[in-house]
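Loading example: each entry is read as two labelled lines plus one structure line.
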Amino acid sequence: MFYVVGGGKEMPKLFNVMLGNKLKAVRDKLGMTLEEVAQKMGFNSYQTLSSIEEGRRMVKAVELAKLSKIYFRDMKYFLNEEIEQDQDQPVLWRAYSGDAKVKQREGTFIKFCEHYSDLEFKLAIDSKPKINFLTWQVGDFNYDSIAGLANNLRNELQLGARPACSLAKVLEEKCNIKILFLDLENYGSAASTVGKFGAAILINSSEPSWRRNYDLAHELFHIITWNTFPYDTIHSFAEEKPLVEKWADAFASYLLLPGEEISREFNKNVEDNKISLLDLIGIAREFEVSLDALLWSLVNLRFFSRQIVRKILNDPEVKTLDFSGQKKETTPYLSRRYFNLALKAYKKTLISKGRLCEYLNINRADLGKILKEYGYSVGEEIYETKFALA
Amino acid sequence: MKPNLLLLDADVIIHLHECDLWKGVVSQYSVYVGAIVIEEVQYFWDNGGNKICINLRDAVEKNKIIEVASTAEEMAALSKRLKDVEYSELDPGELECATIIAEEKIADLRFCVKDGMAIKALTYLGFREQILSIETMLKQKGLISKDTEVPVGFSEERFNRFTLEATLDSI
């Protein structure tokens, strides 16, 4: 064991100093105070935590396990001296509230991305996104070019006539884009990031499905233009919506609402040159988008004038109608792909069962129940059985 | 005098509660449990789907089980020894217990493990002779009869498969 000694007074151990520095850096990054964390840890005083951060107090394993959870980090990040303090991972938030709690949601999101990428690495799967990042210049963007981009991508990804229905699955399974559904409450509706773990999108699970689909398509625009629009040029507290955000909205609309299909459905429902509100809502549900998005798309297709759409949308009864019958589905927190990768890594003994539960963010006692929810209805050991091929 | 037994992973404790064997194990062995595992094990589900609380802290206070702990630094040292093998991904509770074993903090200690990766890691570290499968641990003290067929996860056969794999890996 190596100790630093000086001036006749015992100095803190190198390991404790390294650990203290990492703990302090992570706490600062999350915007948490000494008092707040000390309270969560059950310390009598914040000075205990302060001593730990200064490397003057030895850290018990059980304390580090708790701190790792509070800081959304794996314990190995703190234990391994070779893992250096990481750089800030830029996360682009939609409707950024600026609340400190956003940082903590961000921590969960980044941890998920790292776990996802760890699993891919262990299972020898390439974690790079399989999607073309645009190399356009800013001057190349306008509503026409964005419409073309959305149409091409829809065809390339074979999203079909109802793109919203398959978008999440296609993005994860075909394009290797990681998707996490998390209850963000009012702290933001969606976010995206591109880092060493690949590309990832965070969606607010408490929003209705049509909103989530739209957010997903919106964030996809940010992913493919990640190299064109630097993160800090979009990430702004400005009251006026930045142009890039308007382009991302347009892209989402073009991607999820193919003109030909919308026109066909619209014309089917027209009688005496009129269409009922009920039918409009029906079309929106069919395409899994909001009435808002559908109406603006109909303006682009020249079925309605802007004035009429504004009038419809300003009617309070319309808003109620659009939301009614829109049940908030319980989207799984983790996608099926992620779940399957974690289970596979466990079955290959690449991770322990405890780690599996950490990856799935569940208590061990609940694993059986969760397996059942994902369609694995028998005791988990049965999956260790291997069958010989004929 | 009761033999010393470290229950290494939370799973073993949860399963023993599910099968109503916990009290028997505690009566036959001096049971040691890691501090992280004590925090981690909180409840189990009975056959009727009811959530039943497990309070290991209370069991420690009533001297029914003994709490053991390690430091972050000791854990870091063990992690270093495991970093070059593919089964280094133990969870914190298992890693703490593995550290206690590696540091030889308790004399004449046997340990019971269910997790495949933990069995492999301990075999790799040279503790094969001290590990018990749940089946052996229960049958050795007559907590279940010798001819009882145990669930796959408890079995000596599964346990031997993992130790063999780890032995072959280390060659």
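Residues 4-170 of chain B form a domain with the Rossmann fold fold (CATH 3.40.50.1010).
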